[in-house]
Amino acid sequence: MEPDQQGADRVGLKKRIAFDYELQFHLIAMAELPLQSGALSFITLDRLPLSSWGRIKEIDGEPTAVTRLHALGLLPGQLVQQRHRALLGEPIAFEVAGQKIALRNQEARMVLVERIVPSGHQSGDPS
Amino acid sequence: MTAPTTPASTPARPGLKFHRVALLGNPNTGKSTIFNWLTGLRQRVANYPGITVDAHRGKMRTGQIAWEVIDLPGCYSLNATSPEEKVVVDLLQGKGAVPRPDVLVCIVDATNLKRNLFLALQLAELGLPMILVLNQWDLARKRGLTIQLDALERTLGVPVIATVGSRGEGIDALREAIEQSLENPRMLRPVEWDAPVQEAIHHLRSKFKEIGVELDLFEARRMLFDGLHAAPRGFSSKNPEASSIIEESRAMLRAAGLNPSSAEAVLSHQFLSRILTGLVEQGEGAVSATDHSIDAVLVHRVWGSLIFVSIMALIFQFVYAWAAPLMEVIESATTWAQEEVGRTLEGTPLLQSLLADGVLAGVGSVVVFLPQIFVLFFFIAILEDCGYLARAAFLIDKLFGWCGLNGKSFVPLLSSYACAIPGILATRALEDPSARRSTILMAPFMSCSARLPVYVLLIGTFIEPHYGPWAAGWALFGMHFVGLAVALPLVWAANRFIFKTRHLPFILEFTGYRIPAWRNVVFTMWEGGREFLVRAGTVILAFSIVIWALLYFPRSQQVETETIQTLLEEQALISGEPVDDVTSWLEENPDFAAKLEQQLAGAWLEDSYLGRFARAVQPVFSPAGFDWKITAAILASFPAREVIISTLGIIYRLGPEVDEESDTLRERMANDLYTSGPRVGEPVFSLPVAVALMIFFALCLQCGSTVAVMARQLSWTWAVGAFVFMTSLAWLAAVLVYQVSSRLWLG
């Protein structure tokens, strides 16, 4: 891949997370997601806690891995749930698109997800 | 029906009239099961030139038409970014040594239709007739998925056949569909791309035409979505404008709000969702509740790991112990056959020895591995078929990931502790070619069961008498980890600095648990055994005959006469009366005859080409403290390391039948002194020598069968390279151990 193209394809992840943070309010306003205000956060898939759900925002990184993940059905908008973590911290198994798939941290870090806390699960939130 | 229907399908050789059908599909869709149903036992593994992936080929007949069925490696997509997928693409485009197939059979998992159809959509762009097989139909029904086959067939434009691979249901319908596809070829409905994609592809093709490169639609799409990865090697240097054209067209996608690297997958899935609406009713949650509850135990951090260790211990025990009685049967059958041959051919010693010690010993040394191969493949097939293997790889992956291996390397490496051959054959489960290669290269470092007799003999002779059974036990335990401890960092360094392997993403799919199909289990065992017998067996047999010849010839009459003379003189000294008629005296004294035979065998070995060669190369091994006898024993055991025991038996005038527990052999080795040279009077074997010899055996690739199997799985270059490397490494380590330890002991 050409360097300039690479630059265009891969905006730094950090930058984008910051940008997405601003977007959050718009997303809430659009009411597309079953989210509660306090629950909104963008994290990489490797940091999704056990049994919790996320919605894939995008996948970015080494092209081979990205296309492989896409082919396995990890696409923007898909819901993903963390199911198991191996004894030594990785790989991590997820349920996504009606199947169970295990990834190493390196690949899981390429997937940016939006954490979802189903409504009703939050207690003591005045809003 | 004789003439091929598509111009691309001309047979490789003009005289041969058969058509080709290629099977494709995601991994774990039951593709090989369908292949086995179609071809039966008329199949073989074909390594296409220059390809590291195995493609199975088999024959099939439908009516009057002969078919070659090609089972391509399972893949999730045809993206050019992955080297092994590119191999499949080249093959389907007829760029390799094999012509394009006439028909494609795309096998999809009916329980996960949408994901599986992504590959089918990519295949559609190749412009080949296709048949869609919905496998695991029973499972899909059970999970409450309803798929309207007729409507699906109308929507997609190709025949859709529901099959149950484990029971062979739907196979006849599939055969019929394959046959009909020649007369009535049907193509899969391609993705209706959005305008921006169409424009970008048009732009790409017309610009390339300007610089004199004609791209078909498939190539153009691959370049658009995969960038320069899709271009052939050296393409961009020949066409300097290529990358800027590709970048321009990708920029067109970006301008339309699409991310070029994910556009294909996203748009294809949108397209699928659109056309499948109403045809496929996904039941509630495709991962079944039963699977979740089994996983809750089997993949549990604590319980899962414990169960994993127990299962692996059990398999290892079975490979080690179950196979033993069968191996003993084969060994005694070999011995029996050798004795029979010996008796029948008593008059012609050359033929007798060639058949008994060359051919039969060679055949025996091949067949003896079959029980272990069958037992291991029995368990692997069961674990794989029931869905546990992926979970096992999940649990253990972290331990192997750091050095370029992965969780799937574990079973092959563990079984290499019993024998490297089934271990290397079992690496087929690894999809990542570089991890597979690393695992194959590591397998012979694992302490296989043939090394055990060497350790037992040397530890029993030189460690146990001086340091007690505890030290002996620990020494034996420690020797089993020498190879692993040396190999792991080597593999890490090789992957990091020499091969500079691009790390492929390691992604495991947890398939649903199911009861293994016995047919699959039998096929897997059969395939493993046959592969070894046919491919490696011939090479091993050749090796054994060469070593036999080196040990047998020149077999001069002079040596025999001298040996008899010396013995008789000794006898005369003891008894006081000379022997006149040698033949009748030998008949009267069977003990003496046996002694003569042992002496003669030893004398012949010393005089053989191998014995002479050992004396010639002894200076090479002397830095490790080995005398010519140890050198000869090492050289003779290059085809199979356990041969060292019988060779030492012959050298120490005890005949080839000694085993590692033999007290006489131990005694003679311990009391053997140098009779000439600078070290005259010193013992031949000292503790440093014994340890150096064990280290040599731990690291050296002294196994013709392993070399042959490695050559089969990788290439002869790799196999010979591994042999040279491991031999040099073993020599270096033995010298180091001897020099350091003898100085420490002496100082």
Features:
heterodimer, A: 127 residues, alpha+beta, SH3 type barrels, six-stranded antiparallel β-sheet, globular, disordered N terminus, disordered C terminus, B: 747 residues, alpha/beta, Rossmann fold, two-stranded antiparallel sheet
Structural topology:
The complex is a heterodimer of chains A (127) and B (747).
Chain A: H1 3-9, H2 13-30, E1 42-44, E2 53-59, H3 63-71, E3 79-85, E4 92-96, E5 99-103, H4 105-108, E6 111-116
Chain B: E1 19-25, H1 31-39, E2 43-47, E3 54-62, E4 65-71, H2 83-92, E5 103-109, H3 113-124, E6 130-135, H4 137-142, E7 146-147, H5 149-156, E8 160-162, H6 171-183, H7 195-210, H8 217-226, H9 235-238, H10 242-255, H11 260-276, E9 280-281, H12 289-298, H13 303-344, H14 349-367, H15 370-386, H16 388-401, H17 410-416, H18 420-425, H19 433-442, H20 452-462, H21 464-498, E10 507-510, H22 518-552, H23 557-575, H24 582-588, H25 590-607, H26 609-621, H27 628-636, H28 643-651, H29 663-671, H30 687-699, H31 704-713, H32 716-746
Parallel strand pairs in B: 1-4, 1-5, 5-6, 6-8
Antiparallel strand pairs in B: 2-3, 3-4, 7-9
Helix pairs in contact in B: 3-11, 7-8, 7-10, 12-13, 13-14, 13-15, 14-22, 15-22, 20-21, 20-29, 20-30, 21-30, 22-31, 23-25, 26-27, 27-28, 30-32, 31-32
Write a structural description.
The complex is a heterodimer of chains A (127) and B (747). Chain A has one domain: Roll (SH3 type barrels). Chain A contains four helices and six strands, in the order H-H-E-E-H-E-E-E-H-E. In chain A, strands 1-6-2-3-4-5 form a six-stranded antiparallel sheet. The N terminus and C terminus of chain A are likely disordered. With 747 residues, chain B is α/β, with parallel strands linked by helices. Among the domains of chain B are: 177 residues, P-loop containing nucleotide triphosphate hydrolases (Rossmann fold); 87 residues; 49 residues, no CATH class. In chain B, helix 7 runs antiparallel to helix 10 and helix 20 crosses helix 29. The N and C termini of chain B lie far apart (86 Å). Chains A and B meet through helix 1, helix 3, strand 3 and strand 5 of A and helix 3, helix 10, helix 11, helix 12 and helix 16 of B.
